[in-house]
Amino acid sequence: MGMRLGPTVRALLTAMLVSATSNAGAALEYVWQDDFAPADQVRLRLWIDETAAALERLVGELPMRVRVHFHRRDGAREPVPWANTERYRSQGVHFHVDPGFTLQDFRRDWTAPHELSHLVLPYLGRRHAWFAEGFASYLQYPVMGELGVLTTADVQRRYQRNFERAERGYDKPGKPFVAAAAQLRSEGKYPVLYWGGAAYFLQVDAELGSRGQSLLGVLRAYLGCCRRDHARLDDLLGELDRLSGGSSFRDGYERFRTQPGFPEFRSLPPAAGWHPQSKN
């Protein structure tokens, strides 16, 4: 007589099958730092599997093992009150989560798209946090679009709202953004730091688009050939320019290094970011 499976075990096996067939290629290793019920593990794994697959549909397969750590944070006001990437001993993310939230709540949260996006680029050091955080901020909404929780119009509205808020919070009009970045961080002005950095990628994406290219396409080429765990920013910019056949990445950095005030974003095409035609 066959073994009868309980509903929790059946759900776990089903989710494991879905994960195996839907994951685009990242080697995800799950580490449970605290106790989670089997049903909670199913939900959390599916959330990360789906997010990683959405990211990889945009930029290609992450060429390394990614270790995903889960920590409990019961009684939180949001699904993921804290998360951070791990870049030294391994490439991975620590998620502090409240398992009381639903799968759809986790899907609608921007934290996993942001943190997993960090892993597309190598670790560049604390000095260039504006660049790394700007990149993850710029990419998080396209990933959410791929997940189906944001429309193209939603992505553009969120870009606009965050750029405008960051511009209002930038109180160093005489300083170029790169020169102000360390002070913004020490003052805890993280939204200004993140979205000022994201404006760099908006500018580069718009310039690439004027040549019939896209940031996503360059990133796909980069992951296919050149991704490493650590790099100097100048070397990374050189590789991205080589792959794109131009100088958009270095030219953009020079603008951020020399032009005072909050970076320009208003004059750029509203579709400079993600839209369905830009995925390939």
Name a few traits of the molecule:
11 helices, globular, 280 residues, disordered N terminus, alpha/beta, four-stranded mixed sheet
Strand order of the largest sheet: 1-2-4-3
Largest sheet: 4 strands, mixed
Which geometry do the CA atoms define? globular
Q: What's the helical proportion of residues? A: 55-70%
- For the residues shown, what is the average pLDDT? 89
Task: Tell me what the structure shows.
With 280 residues, the chain is an alpha/beta fold. Helices cover 55% and strands 9% of the residues. It has a 4-stranded mixed β-sheet with strand order 1-2-4-3, with helices on one face. Helix 5 crosses helix 8 (190-210).
List the helices and strands and how they pair.
Blueprint: H1 7-22, E1 27-32, H2 38-59, E2 65-72, E3 82-86, E4 92-97, H3 103-108, H4 111-118, H5 129-147, H6 152-169, H7 177-186, H8 190-210, H9 215-225, H10 233-244, H11 248-258
Parallel strand pairs: 1-2, 2-4
Antiparallel strand pairs: 3-4
Helix pairs in contact: 1-2, 2-4, 2-5, 4-5, 5-6, 5-8, 6-8, 7-8, 8-11, 9-10
Concise account of the structure shown:
This protein has 280 residues and is α/β, with parallel strands linked by helices. It has helices at residues 7-22, 38-59, 103-108, 111-118, 129-147, 152-169, 177-186, 190-210, 215-225, 233-244, 248-258; strands spanning 27-32, 65-72, 82-86, 92-97. The N and C termini lie far apart (51 Å).
